């Protein structure tokens, strides 16, 4: 029987490897209803426009207008003009929209305000207001929003100019009261249009180099997300010359990241680039992209099918099942003076349902050997290690769990409370290493074959081999192993 199972499993693995068929998505569902589409917010630079326009896509590449390309929202305050609209899904599941307060192309206008709206569904919009982000004689262009899990606040970044353009930030919890602005990113030369993405414990910032030598997109990164912590890591430009307003988003069904950029001299044309590594210095241009005419400086947010259907129809669609609001676990401060906390989220590298989340997300051990400290993830995949002494040389972090390839993270600098990863972008471990030798190979296939076709009350059932924790060791577990076959810890 073991030999028969072995042959069956081996056949599946060989088919998987040589046909490159994607059997299993590795993106983790974020709610009871997973994301199945995208909404792009943008504006048009033309008389009678300067409102919020929306278009949608189901693949992230081919976009169709909503409301025939007409604005779904106009500003009634300030200059009554909208440029550079940015849509952000908030921690409570709703949306916030921010935009530049500017009508037309009078670049010398210096507004101290940005537009703000909120929406539950991107169909109706409420609480229109102007938010004052500075009190000096400079503009406030291209506002965007990120969430800082350490500060438990949203960061509002925007481009401001004194002697040259820098990226500034204000922090807020409610988009009504904000902190005084401070410089967020300044590489020493003109930059505008910063876009922040957090992934696997690193914050990436993509921006337009505004110098005459390029006027194109570069990237910077940081392990802390703190102001002035970003270092430019792309020696060359990522996109073509004459691009601005980059926005980056992840494919809902793969590890691919897309970057769209506005060809600003062509008034309404975009180009698209892709990568599977946000830290890459070279992205691949995508040619099969279709974007409505006239699109300028946009942003993209992923939405569920229910949300997408409602936005297209212009009226809410009843949700078939209740969708729980995503929750985050608060990161308490260190308990000993002069020490800090290290926290974050860990997850398996395969998709799973909410029913098995508690079993799959919990139990990952996170160790700091040099400090003699460790923690284990809870049912949400969250961990926190307290009382870590300051280490500017960097700790080595080890993450492990039975049945997974262990992962080492080097040079983690601790000089403040640090969040290594986030709930929407956890550190992911590869499953299938049953014998703990940090390699997924034929030895693991043999171990799985011995328990194949068993259920939880069978004598040959082993919970550590039931990778998706559904109470049965079957082809679902084989497919998870096959996805990582012939990988080792060096593949992280």
Describe the structure.
10% of the residues lie in helices and 39% in strands. With 492 residues, it is mainly β. It has two domains: 2-27 and 327-491, Immunoglobulin-like; 35-313, Tachylectin-2, Chain A, CATH 2.115.10.20. The chain has a four-stranded antiparallel beta sheet with strand order 3-2-1-20. Strands 4-5-6-7 form a four-stranded antiparallel beta sheet, with no helix packed on it. A hairpin with a 4-residue loop joins strand 22 (365-368) and strand 23 (373-376). The longest helix has 18 residues, at 2-19. Mean pLDDT is 86; it is low at 15-33 and 318-334.
CATH class of the largest domain: Mainly Beta
Structural class: mainly beta
Instruction: Give the helix level as a range of percent.
Output: 10-25%
Count of extended strands:
32
- Residue stretches low in confidence (pLDDT < 50, at least 5 long) are 15-33, 318-334
Oligomeric description of these chains: single chain
Q: Taking strands numbered 1, 2, ... along the chain, how are they ordered across the largest sheet?
A: 3-2-1-20
Shape from CA axes? globular
**Tally of separate domains:** 2
Provide the CATH superfamily of the largest domain: Glycosyl hydrolase domain, family 43
N/C terminus separation: 35 Å
CATH hierarchy: architecture of the largest domain: 5 Propeller
H/I helix tally: 5
CATH topology of the largest domain: Tachylectin-2, Chain A
Gyration radius over CA: 24 Å
Residues in β-strands, percent: 35-45%
GO molecular function: hydrolase activity, hydrolyzing O-glycosyl compounds
Keywords: Hydrolase
Domain Dockerin: 427-492
Protein name: Glycoside hydrolase family 43
């Amino acid at each position: 029987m073991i030999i028969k199972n072995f042959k069956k499993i081996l056949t599946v693995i060989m088919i998987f490897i040589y046909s490159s068929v994607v059997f299993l998505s590795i993106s983790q569902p974020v709610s009871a209803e997973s994301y199945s589409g995208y909404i792009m917010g943008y504006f048009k630079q033309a008389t009678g426009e300067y409102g919020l326009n929306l278009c949608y896509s189901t693949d992230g590449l081919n976009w169709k207008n909503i409301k025939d390309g007409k604005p779904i929202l106009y500003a009634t305050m300030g200059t009554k003009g909208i440029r550079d609209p940015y849509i952000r899904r908030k921690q409570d599941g709703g949306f916030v929209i921010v935009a530049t307060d500017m009508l037309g192309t009078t670049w010398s206008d210096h507004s101290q305000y940005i537009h703000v709206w909120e929406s539950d569904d991107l169909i109706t919009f409420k609480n229109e207001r102007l938010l004052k982000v500075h009190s000096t004689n400079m503009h406030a262009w291209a506002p965007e929003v990120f969430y800082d899990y350490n500060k438990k606040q949203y960061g509002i970044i925007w481009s401001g100019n004194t002697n040259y353009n820098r990226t500034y930030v204000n922090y807020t919890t409610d988009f009504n009261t904000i902190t005084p602005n401070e410089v967020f990113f300044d590489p020493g030369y003109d930059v505008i249009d910063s876009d922040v993405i957090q992934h696997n414990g690193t914050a990436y910032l993509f921006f337009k180099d505004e110098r005459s030598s390029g006027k194109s997109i570069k990237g910077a990164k940081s392990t802390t997300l703190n102001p002035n912590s970003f270092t430019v890591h792309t020696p060359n430009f990522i996109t073509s010359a004459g691009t601005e307003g980059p926005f980056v988003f992840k494919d809902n069904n793969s590890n691919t990241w897309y970057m769209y950029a506005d060809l600003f001299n062509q008034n309404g044309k975009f180009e698209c680039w892709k990568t599977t590594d946000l830290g890459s210095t070279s992205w691949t241009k995508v040619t099969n992209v279709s974007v409505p005419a006239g699109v300028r400086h946009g942003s993209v947010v992923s939405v569920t099918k229910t949300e997408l259907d409602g936005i297209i129809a212009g009226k809410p669609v009843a949700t078939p099942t209740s969708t729980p609001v995503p929750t985050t676990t608060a990161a308490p401060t260190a308990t000993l003076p002069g020490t800090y906390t290290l926290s974050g989220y860990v997850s398996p590298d395969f998709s799973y349902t909410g029913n098995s989340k508690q079993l799959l997300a919990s139990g990952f051990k996170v160790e700091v050997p040099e400090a003699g400290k460790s923690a284990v993830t809870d049912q949400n995949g969250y961990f926190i290690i307290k009382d870590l002494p300051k280490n500017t040389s960097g700790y080595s972090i080890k993450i492990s769990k039975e049945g997974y390839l262990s992962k080492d993270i080097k040079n983690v600098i601790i000089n403040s409370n640090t969040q290594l990863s986030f709930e929407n972008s956890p550190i992911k471990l590869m499953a299938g290493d049953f014998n703990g030798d940090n390699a997924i190979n034929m030895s693991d296939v043999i171990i799985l074959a011995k328990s194949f076709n068993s259920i939880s009350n069978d004598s040959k059932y082993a919970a550590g081999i039931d990778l998706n924790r559904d109470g049965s060791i079957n082809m679902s577990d084989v497919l998870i192993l096959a996805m990582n076959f012939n990988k080792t810890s060096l593949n992280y």
